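$ fold --in a.seq
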Amino acid sequence: MKPIYANRFRKCYTAKGRGLLLAGAVFAMVTFCAANIFAENCTTAGDIEPATRTVLLAAGQHYFDFIAKGDSASLRQNVIPSLASDFSGIESTVKDNQPALSAAKGTTRPPFLLEASGGAPIARAEFYCGVFGRNGQTADSAAFYLNNLPPGKYAVVILDAQTSKGPYTVSLILQQAASDWKLGGLYIKAGETGGHNSDWFLTRARDFKSKGQTHNAWLYYLEARSLVSPLPFMSTAATDKLYDESQKAQPADLPANGKTIDLPAGATTYKLIDLFPEVVGNDLDLIVKYQTADASNTNQAYQSNVAVMKAWVAKYPELRDAFAGVVARAVDASGRDYGTLLAMKDIK
């Protein structure tokens, strides 16, 4: 995610050095106050009232214990109403990760307190937390980007857990309801893919780049950035640094930011809408999404999926060095999709 720097904030800060350049994206060391022009405020752990910080840390540990035990029933009793009425996603997440977390202990990171004011949901809420420096984020800062966020007081509590399957993060989005902090979102991520962490993927990305394999390099940069961040809508100094480095390796012929790419395959040209790495089982596979008229026609979708995979790997054979398989997903206008997985050795 591209970092957005602090010229969005009001002049409410203490500064060291030569001050803030309001017209640009670079600035001297600045500590921002809670109020900003978008009525989205973030308080870091050091500035959260001690009693509130204690409650947040205790809530995070309490919910982690439910998750580690696979106790979805108790967790459901402590969620916000919208999740209670549609709990299947949370329940599946807990069930899928409970074997790894069952014997783990959660270590809580310093929490963040987010406040969104106003009378209606915010289409894109942006929270900038902590101290930003001349080059952007610092070791203890973070930014959060949330869509359609209702007004309210929220907290982000992240716990690290060392498991038999490697490091995991359990991230809880809490929402204040009277004196309680209810669960409003749950994200559980492994810190490694196939036994490899973010640094390993970064090293491989640089190796691919040095060999001129720009597509492999870009996709491995994406995986490195994903592994280093516990939340898809959170950026830190580490993710921003990876973002800046990866931009120099981004190929122009990949779908991005709503732009489709034409892929000829025999007499048909497919429009690719997304492409990214993803763990499937124990393998790192490549996901390729493309437009189709009707994904419910599974026989036709299967044939098209195979054609897309063959055409894409034939166009970029370097992918064979980086991925165990490819998943093609035919997506129609309604959002319905149909996917097919082939091992790389079976794509001929």
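$ fold --in b.seq
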Amino acid sequence: MLLSVLKEWRAMPAGGPSLPWLLLGLSVLALGGQMSRAQTVAPRDQKVGTPAAPVVISLQEALKRAQANEPNFAASLANARIAGLDKSIARAGLLPAVTYHNQALYTQPGGQGQGIGANTFKFIGNNAVHEYASQAMVNEDIGLGQIAAVRRADAAAAVASAELEIARRGLVAAVVGIYYGLSSADRKRGIAEQAADEAAAFVKLTSQREQAREAAHADTIKAQLQQQQRERELEDAKLNADKARLELGVLLFADPRTPYTINISAAPAALTSREEVNQLAAKNNAELRSALATLNMSSADVLAARGAYLPGLAINYTYGIDAPQFAVNGPDRVNNVGYSASVTVDLPVWDWLATEHKVKQSVIARNAAKTALSATQRRVIAQLDEAYAEAQTARTQLASLDTSVATAAESLRLTKLRYTGGEATVLEVVDAQAAYVSAQNAREDGRVRYQTALAQLQTLTGTM
């Protein structure tokens, strides 16, 4: 097409419309260049479009990503940072505040106002018709309330920090459960695939025995029913695995459909001794820290309420000008710059028992915080004992579950041999297949149980 256009353009007479044909030829040349570049780049685009390998996510990586994406943990982190800033603000309240004050004031002159001679003005509270103030002020309030506010802010920051740790540990427990739940779902899908293959092979075996007139048609029907059941179980296992993968993907990626794999050690972790668990729990329990910090915060409220019984002291120092002229020197070389200082003491006399009632309120709240601390101590002891017993029992049962799987596999093998030799019924084979599948699923549930109990114990002791 390009060659034909060029030939027609060259064949045009000298006086013909050469400009449109010239523009058309240039457009065709540009289009041809784009097509040639597209053909050159095509193989490179094919390489870029190859799907990348799935991301391998370890448990620690999953915890790190979940902390960055989970909204409740983000809210707890924000509260802890805000409480830290509140502590800094409360401490700043103990220090003098410095301001630079500027004001221009005009008062109606003349009439029967105040002043001397022509410099009369209406309002007695003002000093002149024109008044200018430009002053640096240092103010300091001293009282028990400011000290109590610092203590309360420190306790509130400790509460927020403990609550952040509690939120982190709760997130860890949730991620661990989902992570190992996904591993169990993947393994159960493999078990279901193996069971479906086993059922299909048994259907083939019963059909062959029926054709050889060594088994009844009822055996084939029973085997076919078992195969259909295993196929339905396989579909459910695939669905559960996909749901578990999406549930964990919500915490890990911006798009939960991102392909990834998990990496779990085949050998389960060892269980820590009880003495070490008790020592770690006594040092690193976030719930106890939160309850104790809440009690300290209530005690600071009591101190602040009782501080209203005491006098309040305020100190002010002012340096600058307050004169009829906005200048350092006024008329007749009068220096307008000066300073003043004041000390104010306010003595509380009567407030209709409001302070007394506030003290009673804070004491009631402190008593409730003491009760909550005692209950938290008892609950932590019980949770620690329960978590350790759960982990110990689950750890002990792992070997028994492995033995059950091996026994069920051997029972299935022997039952099939007996059925092939005509010594067992089809029901015995079906029961052996079901027992083998149940033993495998129970082993996967036992692994998840131990990993979850171990993670809960580690979160209680602060080691995860």
